[in-house]
Each structure stands twice: as structure tokens, then as C-alpha cells.
Amino acid sequence: AQSVTQLGSHVSVSEGALVLLRCNYSSSVPPYLFWYVQYPNQGLQLLLKYTSAATLVKGINGFEAEFKKSETSFHLTKPSAHMSDAAEYFCAVSSWTSDKLIFGTGTRLQVFP
Amino acid sequence: NAGVTQTPKFQVLKTGQSMTLQCAQDMNHNSMYWYRQDPGMGLRLIYYSASEGTTDKGEVPNGYNVSRLNKREFSLRLESAAPSQTSVYFCASSEGPSGGTDTQYFGPGTRLTVL
Asked: What band does A97 get if pLDDT is binned at 50, 70 and 90?
């Protein structure tokens, strides 16, 4: 079975500050890991994904995530937050044996001027 | 390309009424999915279709039925709506059928309220 835990349902940062959104996973097989972003009143769109190639994955809008097997983590970071980053972020897990995504409960990011 | 489209955008039902949520994709994808999103619970899979002609239950299928009408269209039906089905419903598609690494593309959602 697979699962994802996102620590912190709400994160607030100032514009220009580091963004760190936490995701830990559980998987009995090698995982594929995803971060999706949902802007207000929209559907989800892919930020980045890890599929067993490079452990540091770069995504759109300056976001990146690092796969750490020893910590079962896939935290999302951005060096400098922008007002337009305000959204809800979802971590998700899958595997080569599955065609389904298991989503975390989401983290809402607020960015203050 | 329109991507994934969903109709309607908003719907209010009374308890016991039925309705069908429509979803279509124009990306020639094999796999399609229906999720519901509730506050604090993330997205939960209701049903999915790995390829045309097949459907499978997800995490929360009770109270729902689906039809994969053709490769483009995947509908979700509520036969007798209940207040617990008040939610935002998202349709998604991916290249599939073995979509473990596939990006899923989401529609804009349908906001359903059951009174």
C-alpha cells in the first residue's frame, strides 16, 4: 500500500522568503512522486515529478524537490516566494505497478507582501 | 486544444435527485479518472478507466456509477444524491494505460451542492 503525508495544512511566508512544503511517503515498491498545484477555482496542474532518474527534480515556476529515500521524503522548495505562488499544493505517490495516484491532503500556501 | 472539459461548472440538487457529470478530453488519452475534493481530505479517487471499455472502483465508489462512453468521454452519475456527496468533482486524464509515471491533466471541476 502507498500513502502520502503532508505536514502543515497551511504555510505562510513573506514575499521573497524561502518556500518549504513538506511531503513524506510510504511505499512498499519504488515510488513515483509528484507535486501538483491548484490555483483558486481551478483544476490541478503538474509542478514536477520524480520517476527514479535524478533525485533533484526541477519543475515549473522555479520550484524543485529532492527525493530522499533514507528519509522517505520529497519536500518542495522555492528560494524566493512570489505573490503568484499563493495556491494549494498537493503531493502524490504512484508506482510502476499502479496507474493510480494517491494524493496527500494538501498544503495551502499564503504569500504576504 | 481544450484539454479536459467538464460540465456543468456548478449544480445544486435536492436529496434523492439524480444527475450526470460529463467529462471529455481531446488529447487522445487512454486513461480517465473521477476524483472528489473535500476540505482537509485532498483528492480521493472515485472511479477510473484505464482504457476504453474498462472501468474500476477507486477509494470512494459508493453512491456513484460511471460510463466510459468512448475514448474521449467519461461520465459520472449520482443515482440518488445525498448531502454527503456535496463536493467539488474533478475529472482527469492521462496517456495510460500503464500510467504510474504519467502526468494527469485535470479539468476545471464541478462544484456540487446537495441540499
From this structure: confident
